[in-house]
Amino acid sequence: MRKVAVLAALLAVGLGAVGQVTISFWHAMSGSHGDVLTALVRKFEQENPTIKVELVFQGGYGALQQKLTAAIAAKTPPTLAQEYENWTTQWLDALVDLDLFLPEDLLADLLPQFNQVFSGRIVSVPFNKSILVLYYRPDLVPNPPKTWAEFETYVTRIGKDAGKGIYGTAFRPTNPEIFLAFLEQAGGSILSPDWKTVTINNAQGLEAAEFAARLAKNALVQGAFISEAIAKGITIGMWVDTSAGYPFNMRAARTANVPLAVAPVPCYKNCASMIQGTNLVVYAPNQTKAQIEAAAKLIAFLLREDNLVEWCQKTGYLPVRKSVIEGKAWQEHIAKDPAARVMTEQLLAGGFGQLLHPRYMEMRSLLITYWELLLKGEETPKKIFDALAQEIEGLLK
Amino acid sequence: MEAYLYLLPTLAVLGLFTFYPFVNAFLYSTYDIRTRSVPGPLVHRSEEPGWASSLARGRIPAGLAEALAADGAQADGLWVRLRESQRWVIRDEASGREYIVLREGESLRVHRSTTGWVMTPVGWDNFRRVFQDRDFVKALRNTTVYVGVSVPVTLFLALLLATLLHHAVRGKALFRLTSFLPYITPVVAITMVWQWIYDRKFGLLNYLMRTVGAWVGVEVGLVDWLNNPQYVMPALIIMNVWRFVGYQALILLAGMQGIDREYYEAARIDGAGPFQVWRKITVPLLTPQMFFLLVISLIGSFQIFDQVLILLHGPGPEKSALTIVYYVFTKAFDANQYGLASAASVVLFAIIFSLSLFQLTVLQKRVHYER
Predict the structure, then answer these.
(1) Residue in B79, B115, B319 nearest the CB of A93
(2) Which residues in chain A are contacts of B338 at CB distance < 8 A?
(3) Chain B within 8 Å of A100 (Cβ-Cβ)?
(4) Which of A161, B99, B119, B214 is the most buried (most CB within 10 A)?
């Protein structure tokens, strides 16, 4: 009798394995973020016993990008991966149209701020998203600035004393997204809406550049994260940084024993702020339809209200769905957490994403070069931006 | 025949990991390479107006399913995975094969399709773009400075060290070992340690400089080795000189020990002083070793990459440590421009090749091989 039972059990396991699907998911979520993601994926596997997810942490965004690049060239990409918009444009044809696999109401519920249409296709879904906000020292800046003029006044008043390690603000040359927020706020853009002409050096563009250049005179300019300077005891009045850096900046402030708080970025013609972070995409090469469907199921699971709220509460990322932001759980969370409320309001007030131009990758690389020149302040903003515009024009040809 | 059999393992490894990529780099440098779905053999042609709107909704028109079934596809396993306004990609789940539907005006063409690297020949365009790229010019300049300083300095210091090691009697073995240690330690470990040595506030180098400065009564400021564009290249050079000096000294020492004593005895009988002996006998007779080191270190220095990546986590402030190989790396694996990266690596090859050729033809004439 027992033999029969064992046999039946084995048979059941064997039958179960027949419908088993294994998918791979490459990500760049380190530390506690990675733990939260792993926990959610394990929960997904429990709810879907026929799906097994091989979660692969690739060490960081740089490594993830390089490995994806190589894997796609070798036609062996994972089923699912996190990626930035400007990576997605590099290998659009290798991706699956996700609107054919995800529920319509889920896609319709995504905030328009995260709108991502590549050549008319929906191939990505926003996932770990953050936004630029203003970090400030309440002891030096009692009322966080609401306008560019107030921002500049504060920064000038705090000034710059490299010897004592005091700076009005701080910029990272590798992070031109701050400039793009200024640009958007001034009503400017990198390219015209039809992508035919370069507009970054028009009147609005120069206004943003001149504003940044004036701030840069009293700024700490360094390649490392601003939190590293804070932890070393350097005083910075306020700076624009991603909301994803919140835990790091706060920890640095605690180390240095200084107060730190967040506010929305100061506004100019509008209150735009740039969205950061990656999306989820599904690859076609080397994948079966069952794997692709399983990946879509995982995406839908991660964006389900309970999971999305858990993900965002534990990581500090922003919910990407309208209904979740307005939902009871998130509203209760931001009522208790003022920083999360500021970030949520910032997103709703003026979140915008990357330019989805196929050559934005190279444009961003140029932006970094010229943003650094602007911060250095050895030449006039006009001269720097005319040269930048000329180089971007070269890319459009 | 037997000799070839013994050579086979080496040739196989070299062929796969050196010669094959080497040839491909030349090939790729004249192409623009992108990941695309491209049409293969034509399967079907149609004028059906309803197909496009069906495909746009992700549905396979019955007529299309029939046409694909005729090509061996399983009609009920077909699904759409890519929809643009003028082209669609359909997967046949049973075989894993893909088809691409292209619209031109009113007519639709159905092809078998593959998704992968598409290589479009662009002639010399990649080379033109490389030389127009400010970053490449900067990388070229930085690398030249690095090679121009670090190679002669290392060789000169190695010669001094070898001379000292040759003459020092006590603890010779210990000195030899310690000077060789940097060379056998992994670069990553070395670079991590140097990262600390170069730290502005807590680093050993600034501490030493200030201490020595204080002795002689000079106030030395804190140098921000890794964040000030002026000091990044010197920092890189110092680290690499330190790393290679022991290895080079050991080679030179071996050379010195091989010099026939008769020359020295003859010189001493003729009344030559120690410096004269060194300059007129030791150095000239060491030229074969020095020449070998020059060729090897020049090639190696032009390829500097890993130290930059680990020491600075990037090309350094204002790209002050952007080297040619680092440029190649970022163009290929960050910017996804394999053609451009290959062109840059071909340029690097041309530089190294012509310099080596110069050394082997012109410089070698000054090497004393006769003993």
Answers:
(1) B115
(2) 73
(3) yes
(4) B99
